[in-house]
Amino acid sequence: MPVQKPVFRVVITARDRATMLALLARRRLDIGGSPRYSGDGAVRIDAYVPADQVDALEGDGVRVEIVGDETAVARERQKEVGKGNRFLTGDPVPRGLGRLIRSDDVS
Amino acid sequence: MYLNVDEVDTAVINLASAFPSTCSLITLPNTTFEGRTTHALRLGVGAAGSRDCVMMIGGQHAREWGSCEILVLLASDLLTAFKSNMGLGFGLKTFTAAQIQTLLNELHLVIFPMVNPDGRHFSQLHDPIHGNAGWRRNRNTKDANNDANCIGVDLNRNYDFLFDLAKFAPAANITSHTSADHCDPNQTYQGPKPFSEAETQNVKWLLDANPRTRWFVDVHSYSQDILYSWGDDNDQSTTPSMNFANPAFDGLRGVNGDAAYGEFIPADDQAVAVALATSFTTALQAVRGISYTAKSSYDLYPTCGTSDDYAYSRHFTDPSKGKVYAFVIEWGTEFRPAWTEMQNIIQDVDAGLIQLCLDAPCAAGLAAIFLETPALVFEAVPAGVETSRAALFSVQSCGAVDLNVVSGPMVTSGPGSFSLPVGSASLLAASSAAERDVRLWVSFTGTSAGDVTTGTMTVHCTQTNQSYVIPITAHTIAQPKVASVLVLDKSSSMDDPSGVPNQKRIDVLHAAAPGFVALLSDADGVGIVSFDQDAHPVMALEPAGALGNPAGGRKHATDKIAAHATNPAGSTSIGDGVELAHNSLPASGYDSTAIVVFTDGEENTPKLIADLPAGLINDRVFAIGLGTVDQVNPVALNALVHATGGYLLLTDQLGPNDQFRLAKYFVQIVAGVTNAEIVVDPQGVVLPGAEVRIPFDLVESDYGADAIVLSPFPSALRFRLETPAGERFDHTALGGVTGVQFSSGAQLAFYRLSLPVLVKGTPAARGRWHVVLSTGKEQGATFAASTGRSIPYSVVVHARSALNMDVFLTQPSYVAPTALDLRAVLTEIGMPLENRAHVRAQVKRPDGTTTVVALAETEPGVFEATTQAPLNGVYPVRFRANGTSLRGFPFTREQTRTGMAWRGGDAPPPRTPPGNHELCDLVRCLIADDGIRRWLETQHIDPKTLARCIEGACPK
Lengths: 107, 956
What we know:
The complex is a heterodimer of chains A (107) and B (956). Chain A has 107 residues and is an alpha+beta fold. Chain A has helices spanning 17-26, 70-78, 86-89; strands spanning 7-14, 30-37, 43-50, 62-69, 99-101. Chain A has one domain: Alpha-Beta Plaits (2-Layer Sandwich), CATH 3.30.70. The mean pLDDT of chain A is 89. Chain B has 4 domains: 5-365, Zn peptidases (Aminopeptidase, 3-Layer(aba) Sandwich); 368-477, Immunoglobulin-like; 486-901, Rossmann fold (3-Layer(aba) Sandwich), CATH 3.40.50; 918-953, no CATH class. Chain B is 23% helix and 33% strand. In chain B, a hairpin with a 5-residue loop joins strand 32 and strand 33 (728-730). The termini of chain B are far apart. Chains A and B meet through helix 1, strand 2, strand 3, helix 2 and helix 3 of A and helix 1, helix 2, strand 4, strand 5 and helix 3 of B.
């Protein structure tokens, strides 16, 4: 089994749309979420980048900030996945998270 | 804890079992690459397809785990609350029990929570692989070449919407988020072709299986957005032709903010999408204060092949598919939040989805109005004729909508005027904001040929405070004129008895056909050809000319009809006659052309009608058959008239009291040829010394009328007209009367009115008129003494009118037992005559019985019914409409058609078989020669017998 290299969640900030588009054309990035825009014209996106490729993203007009280790997050989340089939062994019907209310109050 | 794939599927199945009266299980037909079967749910009461539908899908992208939980738990909450008649609360956002009841009573929710179980399974159970932050695609290994990075297709790029990446501009960099490379690390490989994947095929199947889907939501993460169409480029609502389906824009799409391309979205659709997206975000924020953004899908870069754009695009390319407002939810701020946070997000999104569903039917209270006709154009309005055009608005609103004309319609240049025949337009409140059309009618009366009239109108919507300025243009043309050729049979059988005492068939034709010519308009053209085994030109086309003109085409044609003689050795080649008539008609100079065929028998000599080259006859063909359906055997003639927009009338066997039938058929046909309306068509007798008043109604849309009397003894009748005001006038003394002409012939007389008629300075037009027939005692007594009868008459009134009835009689078969499908379409100044008329059809069966069939108004102005034709024979059907005009005046309209059934009625039209016909044609030609016939008689050979032998021997 190959050595697992971590994948980092990074925030890439480009000085403007054109710079970001040029970066995306140049680098095939696994992107998450929608672009975000600052008043100064800068554009930010989330990307999921192998650890050894993060530095290469930095460049003229492009800054990269590591905000998390997605590999570690993924492993933690996998512990929160049910095992077996709870609807075969326990209550057969899933219970929603809304609360039943009797009054006709509407907010 | 998050649900694994087995749990999601079991939860869905168990919900259906637990709530059988409000939840149905749907099994998707396509198994995934790894062999999994997926399921969806239909929530709501009522049978499938009985309600509009909200469709919600989730789990297309494997790592976006929470989408499945959002939808499964939403279903559970709604079903539980509905069953217990309770409300639902999510944080500070609550819904009443009544709202939940309304939701599942009035809508269906189709919920497909786990589109991509293979991907979810992999994402949940396997370590993130090198370079991959969590699986996004499905698990199709077909093109992977054993490279783990190359497995799978991005399902939300696999839909059939702008799948061809070449349709995007190079500068758009479409591949940054939609890739043709199955190893692309951005995990957006679109697949080899649209709907290549079982998972997307399932979503398409679900949309096709639920045609009443009107809203579609695809649940994804992340960004805290709700997105609406489009994702391929910026939205624009000004240029409809700039759209995804137009190849003229290939290679130009996807560049942000450029002028080269923007994706067209109707403004009212965009308004609805924004309104519903805002409903979602508002309700979501009420839960615990989280703010989501409503915006169009296109952002920094374009996408294609997405589920939402596909869903919304369907109705543009296939109007049979209903419009689907489509949304994408991007929940949360990461793909896989901790379960504690995910539970909060589930409540946020479920509240938003419930609110969206509640607001969807009424588009969140929005009244979205779109003017479909930015300009009104009256093209080709005949001078003196009033017609209407409608400004069409499409409205999406549950509330009432009032569209008021606040200015105009007024003329800005040119002659004439515009008016509002039915005033402004309104829509009542409705339970759904499904799109409805509202028409605001404007009328115009043609002025003089060549005139161009321009104008404008301003319409204001009370509810939206929007105003619409609509330019109007009208073009007036001359009254249309028609060129028609009579095609008259002269075969030997025309000397046979007609059934009317002392009258051969040729005699009945002589009496009846002049009525057609007499009633043409002055500018119409008329010509005549005759046929036996060949066709013969009789009279070249010439204008009918003014009434009473002794040198006009009308007189010439009447004389030619009188001289029309039988060929005692003649057979019947209707095909030759029709072909010659067609060749006699001019290619230009008339607005339409018509051929009127008269025959008493079955075609038996080439050319047969079916021998004519396909498409040759582009004239309207009408036909009158004298005789029974077996005698005429009109298989080919019937096919020809139906193919050209005409019709066939069969007289059936004439009897002693049927002296008018053929004449009335010619009078009816001329109305069909000239597009006149038949107002009434009664018949009766006038007793000696008596007076008969036959009423007929004219309405404001009638701009001319012919009041026609048919009688075998017209000199015994005094024929007058009485205006609605009671003024009578006689053709023998028309002083003080203008707008009236009179013409008479051997058995027909008529007044031609140009409305309004002025009688002693008083205009007479709409209202109840009367034909007044009387006879002096001496005249009547003389007639009665010589004939033993009172004076029979038939009155027909034609109107040149903008209140029109078109009738259609079609049959599934021409062999009894069969059915007669009856249809009548009523319009007034171009508008459907809605809820203002009744139509009945009097059907006379071959056994002499009569039935009256009421036609139901199945659409505005469209009346339909079916009646049975159990016997072979002729079925005269008299359509009669009664109603009130726009301005409330009573009107009538009549037309006659004949249904028919006979043995062999469904046979294909006969064609001349290939073979040597020259000898037969030679012998026929010889027998037609007078000299040869006389010589044969000297040899004691009967030419008629010889002719029959030849017809029996020659191939048919």
